[in-house]
Design goal:
Structural class: mainly beta
Helix content: under 10%
CATH class: Mainly Beta
CATH superfamily: Domain of unknown function (DUF427)
CATH architecture: Beta Complex
């Protein structure tokens, strides 16, 4: 297999096995950047990540809001992800995309 082969990423909630997102890795899918995954809305399986309106700021990526994971069974994981609302214009691929950390204990990340 060549190094240019496209890979898919699946993000699941570790405790329940619920698939949160699944799609191709890259700019038009689930974008890996600085140890985080920025998920294009098209690849979210449902609207389980909800903004909790607690703001944050990064000195070079700018303004974001935290997101909670709320599953249909009532499971809730506060501050599971974030979304840049006022992003740095030099980083358009992070704008308005829900994001999670690859190091999160809440999610399992598989590449296939």
């Amino acid at each position: 297999m060549g190094t240019g082969a496209s890979r898919n990423i699946r993000i699941t909630h570790r405790a329940t096995g619920t698939v949160i997102a699944e799609g191709p890795s890259g700019l038009w899918g689930i974008m890996p950047f600085e140890g985080n995954l920025y998920i294009r809305r098209k690849y979210l399986k449902a609207r389980w990540l909800h903004q909790n309106w607690v703001p944050g700021i990064c000195i070079y990526k700018f303004l974001y809001v935290w997101m909670d994971l709320r599953l249909p069974d009532g499971t809730r994981e506060p501050f599971a992800g974030w979304m840049y609302w006022l992003p740095n214009p030099l980083l358009p691929f992070i704008a308005f995309r829900p994001a999670i950390s690859r190091r999160s204990d809440v999610f399992q990340i598989d590449q296939f």
